[in-house]
Amino acid sequence: MNGADSLLAALEHNGVTTCFANPGTSEMHFVAALEGATRIRGVLGLFEGAVTGAADGYARMTDQPAATLLHLGPGLANGLSNLHNAVRAHSPVVNVIGDHASYHRALDAPLTSDIEGTARPFSHWVRTSSGERALASDVADAVTVARRGRVASLILPADAAWNEVPRDGVPPTALEAPRPRVDALAAEAAARHLHEAGERGAILLGGRTPRAEALEAAARIAAATGASLLTGTFAARVSRGAGRFTAQKVPYAVDAAQEFLSRFDTLVLVGAQPPVAFFAYPTKRSTLTAPGTRFIELCGDTTRAQLPLEAVWEALPESARAAAPAAAPLAVPGAAELPAGTLTPQKIAAFLAHAIPEDAVVVDESLTTGWAFDSATRGARPHEWLNPTGGSIGWALPVATGAAIACPERKVIALESDGSGMYMPQTLWTQAREGTDVVTLVFANRKYQILRNEMANVGVEHVGERAGQLLDLDRPTLDWVSVARGFGVPAERAETVEELSAAFARALAAQGPALVEVVL
Amino acid sequence: MNGADSLLAALEHNGVTTCFANPGTSEMHFVAALEGATRIRGVLGLFEGAVTGAADGYARMTDQPAATLLHLGPGLANGLSNLHNAVRAHSPVVNVIGDHASYHRALDAPLTSDIEGTARPFSHWVRTSSGERALASDVADAVTVARRGRVASLILPADAAWNEVPRDGVPPTALEAPRPRVDALAAEAAARHLHEAGERGAILLGGRTPRAEALEAAARIAAATGASLLTGTFAARVSRGAGRFTAQKVPYAVDAAQEFLSRFDTLVLVGAQPPVAFFAYPTKRSTLTAPGTRFIELCGDTTRAQLPLEAVWEALPESARAAAPAAAPLAVPGAAELPAGTLTPQKIAAFLAHAIPEDAVVVDESLTTGWAFDSATRGARPHEWLNPTGGSIGWALPVATGAAIACPERKVIALESDGSGMYMPQTLWTQAREGTDVVTLVFANRKYQILRNEMANVGVEHVGERAGQLLDLDRPTLDWVSVARGFGVPAERAETVEELSAAFARALAAQGPALVEVVL
Q1: Residue A309: which CATH number?
Q2: HSE (CB half, 13 Å, CA atoms) of A15?
Q3: Closest-CA residue of chain A to B161
């Protein structure tokens, strides 16, 4: 066997079953070795951002790393922006980045660049393999790192991939993710301060923590203390809908967020930082909480935040623990209750409350179209909601693809903006090829509406024609139906609630991907 | 005026007239300031790779920097792979990368990342502006650096953009590019060794050096000494066609290149490194010249290589200087001489010899389809030919866009592979919006043919189904006509020489962009 065989055997041994790939010449031995690594599914992306974003989506749904395969420094570079989102989501990812043969690097061939330096700003762990005999343990180390919610980047010199290695038994085994640490003092402080704060207390779940179990544990504390249950604006994954315990989302807009958070003077942070503005503005404060707010950091970002939250519950006075929280009741409007006619963000929100299927995964990059979705869909059928954690757009199509490959039994609904969707539209081709069950709604307002809003926020009252042309997506109008069909994905256009409803039903009934251009 | 106004005034003062942009919230003051900077044309790209690639194309045709405008670390990251190509082409580029306000960085908002660390592997110069009062001199420094054929990355904190600065007269002036240094000893050595080597000598022009004037100067030396005139496989820009002095291109394939170069024992390097293989292969040497070849480095990569070459000419014996080189005769096949029927790479090469219009700019990412184009088009109407210097694919559509904006009076012909074109297809929208006169031919072989070839080169004889699916672009077939129309670019499909000829004529006759999917 050669190094590439050894690397893939180590991935298989450590439970990696999916490799999102965009290979080049230096990765040909890896690709050839994939032929024999039958427990690993290779998925081709036509662009590296599709590859890394898919790995993020896969990780969010499985809590296990997929591998990526990327071609040298520039291939890695194309994948960085979605790695940024993965880093911010604490998604486990193992990147394998092919490099020139070790002896070839010094020749400075055209594709040579500083791969380690390129990986470092968007990886928790970077290693250039020292050679073919190290690859199996490199993989074990990378998987160990990734399982802690981190991005591991392993650089694979081509000669390490093609050199022969002895077949010497079972590859090294990666460590499991550690159990989240329960800080008894922090739990006791949280219990005491929430109890004292009453309605001025809140529990803020960020990152990967707002899963059903943790939300239930937090809701019990909230019921017992009078505290509010909050999630970060862009939590990586939230369990939502009927039967779940609802958390309020911290608003995106700075003024609204500051107003909302001003009612709290005690915040228990669960996988969250003290909330700050996404951007700075000349005349606004960057922190969102009131000065003097007390923060209690209960735990870091973990998929099992119920453990530290249960410790808070245990630390509450016996008397308080009698109160029981109420789960969200089912509140799915029937077809007859839906609004009609031309589409608005509010009507789309109502439609989603009606339409989200049970156990769906909603991948939300709707931005300005979607501000009303959160409150409208709290009583929808139970589902998981993924948010763009790092703010780098072009995220939803790749993440939806990876989530669908991770969960073939679930419907995935991608809520995409036309501006954001244009970053990585070729991702649709991978959906078509893999038959992923993704229904994409592209909200076509034909401008960077968020930037139009932000112009006002930064104090620019009048946007002239020259500046405005950097904010609008008309001239020419993007035809998403034509683009999607070109990539092999069935598509249609909807301009009314009725058309959206019919198109969505057709898309949902079919197996495989579909896209609806939702014209606003 | 605020810092952004000051920055744009400094760009205007230093002759920067084009800004390729993909802005976000942190760049809103820059965008607002563009309203008043009427000498700068803002061009919106829907993805940052389109932005940086366009700046590369613009630079190759003007030898002056365009500015880019990029949004934070992830926006920069999306532009890196085409910056890699620009770095390798010694293209002057000034990147302006918006950052959070300086006081906001420490809060670690979601879009925060290490921008300097991200820029460094793909920039010659990186600076975070110290504030609004430094911006005008930051720009002068960045333009000075760029004019030396370098990528300068200036990071613009949002508060530096929005803070007020005094209007204090004329901004600092950037230095012009220095005159290329003529190394008299190297010129004398080149003359002596070429004279001695006779037919075993060669002059290799790489990078930006193979312009008409330098090719003529080199051709005179070649005629006087018996040396051959060569260009690098992927020289940044080559003046070609009838009336120009033809250089032979070093072949891409390692075996062919080694065979070709084995006939030389003396190589004068003009803006070139000793030729090496693009990739390493298990059983091939990585250097392309024979062991013991003598290299004489005449000069670095410059747009005025005729100056050092003229010094070589002066150093030749008087007697040798009588011989005159012959320019390429016009050899344009008439329509009646063209092959007919279904398309092959050879037929397309013959068609291009017929079809390239006078003064065209050809942007060539045809890869496996295009190996025969070089020899077939040596007698075409005079034109400039741009090559992908850094090997990062997804290069041609953006570079063609920038070249067309730089040269509105010229036709730009983009020769694109279907695999490479899929990296940044949204670039077509910018072409449609700006009305760029670009005719794109997409060669649709529906696979990564180069990787199929490379599999054999790395010693894999049989590619199985599981590995093969990472090399093929069928299932589903990409419909480039539908994709292009979706982005607003007129498109048609050609399956024969006759159809290609008719479609190309229509595309050329129209103003604005057009695309032909050339099915192989």
Answers
A1: 3.40.50
A2: 16
A3: A282
Q: Say yes or no for a CB contact (<8 Å) between A78 and B74.
A: no
How far from B349 is each of B248, B332, B376, B415, B443, CA to CA, in Å?
16, 12, 6, 11, 12
Phi, psi of A514 (to 5 degrees): -155, 155
Residue that terminates a domain, selected from A298, A322, A346: A322
Out of B23, B101, B110, the one facing A280 most closely (by C-beta) is B101
Residue B316 lies in a domain: no
Judgement on whether residues B140 and B215 belong to the same structural domain of the protein: no
Q: Residue B76 and residue B93: Cα distance in Å, rounded? A: 13
Which residue on chain A is closest to B277 by alpha carbon? A109
Q: Tens of pLDDT along chain B (520 residues)?
A: 999 999 999 999 999 999 999 999 999 999 999 999 999 999 999 999 999 999 999 999 999 999 999 999 999 999 999 999 999 999 999 999 999 999 999 999 999 999 999 999 999 999 999 999 999 999 999 999 999 999 999 999 999 999 999 987 899 999 999 999 999 999 999 999 999 999 999 999 999 999 999 999 999 999 999 999 999 999 999 999 999 999 999 999 999 999 999 999 999 999 999 999 999 999 999 999 999 999 999 999 999 999 999 999 999 999 999 889 999 999 999 999 999 999 999 999 999 999 999 999 999 999 999 999 999 999 999 999 999 999 999 999 999 999 999 999 999 999 999 999 999 999 999 999 999 999 999 999 988 888 988 888 888 888 899 999 999 998 999 999 999 999 999 999 999 999 999 999 999 999 999 999 999 9
Q: Which of B48, B434, B458, B474 to substitute to test the interface with A, most A CBs within 10 Å?
A: B458
Count of structural domains, chain A: 3
Q: Name the closest residue on chain B to residue A44, using Cα atoms.
A: B470
Instruction: Give the domain range for residue A251.
Output: 186-235+242-322
Q: A460 to chain B: which residues are within 8 Å by CB?
A: 28-29, 32
In sequence order, which residues have a C-beta less than 8 Å from that of residue B4 and are 6 or more positions away?
A: B29, B30, B32, B33, B156, B161, B162
A391: chain B residues, CB-CB within 8 Å = 74, 110-111
By the 8 A CB rule, do A343 and A497 touch? yes
pTM score, whole prediction: 0.98
Position B23 in a domain: yes
Identify the CATH number of the domain in which residue B98 sits.
3.40.50.970
CB nearest to B276's CB, from A109, A122, A278: A109
Claim to verify: residue A303 and residue A343 sit in the same structural domain: no
Q: Using the beta-carbon criterion (under 8 Å), do A118 and B426 form an inter-chain contact?
A: no
Contacts of B280 in chain A (CB under 8 A): 26, 100-101, 103-104, 158-159
Same-domain status, A9 and A153? yes
Written as six digits, the tokens of B439 are: 């005719």
Count H helices and E strands in chain A, helices first: 20, 18
Q: What ipTM was estimated for this complex?
A: 0.97
Asked whether residue B341 falls in the same domain as residue B483, the answer is yes
Test A422 with B391 for CB contact under 8 angstroms.
no
Q: Which residues of A touch B159 (CB under 8 A)?
A: 280, 282
The torsion region of residue A126 among left (phi > 0), alpha (psi -120 to 50) and beta comes to beta
